[in-house]
């Protein structure tokens, strides 16, 4: 009987350690997912700000084109063309920045999706192992009851 109790205690402590490791991993994955979701929100606001800046630059460019088309004269034409070139460069920079940010956003969304899938897989595996442990525990309990009788 003493051997049975010590063996039972050994199995319980082993399962407790395993359960602790699984729970620790699940908690770390949840924390990592929360951090990624915060980053996702930050990227989203940055993309929105970039879109607003690009729209502003486009409006400024349109205003300058209208002023140029009105024909203010040949005196400031070089300055206007230089300003137009400068604005075009800024627009191109804004567009490239916007594409970079959108690519990073899609990448972070893919990472979040992968983490969710991994978390779901771990949950399913944990549930399966828990059911298996319960079945084995019931089987050992029933075999011990038969031996005791």
Automatic annotation (TrEMBL):
Basic and acidic residues bias locations: 117-134
Membrane topology of the entry: Multi-pass membrane protein
Domain Bap31/Bap29 cytoplasmic coiled-coil: 97-149
Subcellular location: Endoplasmic reticulum membrane
Pfam families: Bap31 (PF05529), Bap31_Bap29_C (PF18035)
Region annotation (Disordered) ranges: 112-149
Domain BAP29/BAP31 transmembrane: 1-38
Any one of the GO BP annotations: protein localization to endoplasmic reticulum exit site
Role: May play a role in anterograde transport of membrane proteins from the endoplasmic reticulum to the Golgi.
Family: Belongs to the BCAP29/BCAP31 family.
Protein name as annotated: Endoplasmic reticulum transmembrane protein
Species lineage: Eukaryota, Metazoa, Chordata, Craniata, Vertebrata
